[in-house]
Amino acid sequence: MQQKRNKRKPKEELLSSISDSIILLLNHLYPVSEQLRIINKTLPKNCSVSEKTYLKYLKTHLKSDYIRYKKNIFFVNNMQEMIRVILAFKTYEEQFENFKFKKFRSGNTEFNLLLEDYIYFFEEYFEKEKDIYIKK
Q1: Which of 2-16, 50-64, 88-102, 114-128 comes out lowest in average pLDDT?
Q2: Distance of alpha carbon 56 from alpha carbon 51, whole angstroms
Q3: What is the pLDDT of residue 6?
Q4: Would you say 66 and 26 are in contact if contact means Cβ atoms under 8 Å apart?
Q5: Which residues pair with residue 106 across a beta bridge?
Q6: Cα–Cα distances in Å, from 51 out to 56, 71, 76, 103, 123?
Q7: CA distance 13 to 60
Q8: How far apart are CA 32 and CA 51, in angstroms?
Q9: Which of 29, 22, 20 is nearest to 120 (CA)?
Q10: Burial classification of residue 41, based on how many CB atoms lie within 10 Å of its CB (0-12 exposed, 13-18 middle, 19 or more buried)
Q11: Rounded to an integer, what distance in angstroms lies between the CA atom of residue 20 and that of residue 15?
């Protein structure tokens, strides 16, 4: 057990050293599996990061970025509902009030959506026309 802990520590340090790049992957809404593929591709051949280690790192060291990522992915996955409220209502407040999803579950975690989350997503991904990765 002690040996397992020692192996994980250098991986956490490695992930910490590339945290800016990880935040970029989160901001561009790459799926976790794609993030891991990119990260592992850049590592030396004798080293790789598992999904379990990666998710633990995200939840521990990049918690706010990871929560924002989960909420943004939720909005992407519910684009039809977003388009419905955007076409029907003029203000962010009205749109959000009429958005039929106010909370969602991802794994064992329940997320509450706030007006601020909706505004952030709309301004960051619609108004700026930011490139995002959507797996087809």
Answers
A1: 2-16
A2: 8
A3: 52
A4: yes
A5: 109
A6: 8, 20, 22, 25, 30
A7: 13
A8: 8
A9: 29
A10: exposed
A11: 10
H or E element in which residue 68 lies: helix 63-77
Which amino acid is located at 124 in the chain? E
The residue assigned the tokens 């598992």 is: 50
The answer to whether the beta carbons of residues 11 and 56 sit under 8 Å apart is no
In order, the DSSP letters of 18-66 are THHHHHHHHHTT--HHHHHHHHHHHS-TT----HHHHHHHHHHHSHHHH
- Cα 44–Cα 49–Cα 55 angle in degrees, nearest 5: 150
What is the rounded CA–CA span in Å between residue 116 and residue 120? Answer: 6
pTM for the whole thing?
Answer: 0.83
Structure tokens at 56: 């633990």
Which of 4-8, 63-67, 112-116 shows the lowest per-residue confidence on average (mean pLDDT)?
Answer: 4-8
8 Å CB contact between 99 and 55: no
